[in-house]
Amino acid sequence: MELKARLPELAPVKNEGRHGFGCATICGLDHASGDAVVIVMADESDDCRDVARYWNRTEPGMGLCLRSRFMKGGAVMDYPKVNCC
């Protein structure tokens, strides 16, 4: 809550439902408000600089901007083999 005190726009949500990345994402989106939503991994495996990069690439009326570590140009480092494509 110390971070919430410094950033009043921060709205932490505890997922009381099913666990897992997909369920956590849905829970977060269900509670989201504002102009944009950024989904990143809590273990910092996503580059936080990508938030600004993708915001700068969005245009008015754009509904979605995606990236994936598994698509062309992406990178997968130290990812469990069982989850890789």
Question: Largest sheet, described in full?
Answer: none
Number of strands: 0
The total of helices stands at 3
User: Runs with pLDDT <50, length 5+?
Assistant: none
End-to-end Cα distance, whole Å, is 38 Å
Overall residue-averaged pLDDT value: 79
Strand percent estimate: under 5%
SSE topology string: HHH
Sheet/helix structural class: mainly alpha
Silhouette = globular
Helix content bin: 25-40%
Q: Taking Cα atoms only, what radius of gyration do you get, to the nearest Å? A: 15 Å
Structure report:
It is a single chain. This protein has helices at residues 2-6, 21-31, 49-57. It is mainly α and 85 residues long. The model has no long low-confidence stretch (mean pLDDT 79).
In short:
With 85 residues, the protein is an all-alpha fold. The protein is 29% helix and 0% strand.
